[in-house]
Amino acid sequence: MSALVSIRNLTKTYQRGPEKVQVLHGIDLDIPHGDFVALMGPSGSGKTTLLNLIGGLDNPSGGEIEIEGERIDRMNDGQLAHWRSHHVGFVFQFYNLMPTLTAQKNVELPLLLTKLSASQRKRNAEIALQLVGLADRKSHRPNELSGGQQQRVAIARAIVSDPTFLICDEPTGDLDRHSAEEILNLLKQLNRDHGKTIIMVTHDPKAAEYATHTIHLDKGELAATPAAH
């Protein structure tokens, strides 16, 4: 498999008051197309920082991030926003759904940036909800859905524009074990049956077992070479 994500000598430093804090120290990493990667490590190890850099939500202090041949580290904010809307689906721990919108309207949100007609947006949202097993809940608002169902809506929203890959930051962190297993099985299905590349930050070893590779970060450095289960 060719590399979807290719990272070389990646660094990230934050200014906190008078001092500079280096969060990532010269990361080298390749993630192949079609992989399902779990990013693990103790709190403060740089997991979410690395995820945000790969997803184009933040800019590195140094190094290269190449995704499908594009150097996103060279993009300005406007270019990054355009690139994200076409290539990345985001799934967060707390769902980030709009409380006043139905499940279908929440899923349609990324499509408002496209040239699709209203009927096409509706159809695509319905297909995405069907894929995550919530076709019968399309008219429900978030407060009428369980946590697991809300995360399914969030996943449908992440995949509705057919992104190149999914970025998942602790997607099961706010769920009970049963709901977490349903979400992880759904992610595995999207990876296995639909070829979606998934990069997932998790603190849960059981969640990491669903991935094909686990990458460990410690103090901003790779602690081990990714290896298949």
TrEMBL record:
Q: Which Pfam families match?
A: ABC_tran (PF00005)
Q: According to the entry, what is the taxonomic lineage of the organism?
A: Bacteria, Pseudomonadati, Pseudomonadota, Gammaproteobacteria, Lysobacterales
Q: Which PROSITE patterns does the record associate with it?
A: ABC_TRANSPORTER_1, ABC_TRANSPORTER_2
Which SUPFAM superfamilies does the record cross-reference, listed alphabetically? P-loop containing nucleoside triphosphate hydrolases (SSF52540)
Membrane spanning residue stretches: none
Q: Which GO terms describe its molecular function?
A: ATP binding; ATP hydrolysis activity; transmembrane transporter activity
Superkingdom of the source species: Bacteria
InterPro entries (UniProt xref): AAA+_ATPase, ABC_transporter-like_ATP-bd, ABC_transporter-like_CS, ABC_transpr_LolD-like, MacB-like_ATP-bd, P-loop_NTPase
Show where the ABC transporter domain sits.
Answer: 5-227
Q: Which family does it belong to?
A: Belongs to the ABC transporter superfamily. Macrolide exporter (TC 3.A.1.122) family.
Q: Which organism is it from?
A: Pseudoxanthomonas dokdonensis
Tell me if ATP-binding is a UniProt keyword of this record: yes
Q: Which UniProt keywords apply?
A: ATP-binding, Nucleotide-binding, Transport
Q: Which GO terms describe its cellular component?
A: plasma membrane; transmembrane transporter complex
* Name used for this protein in its record: ABC transporter ATP-binding protein
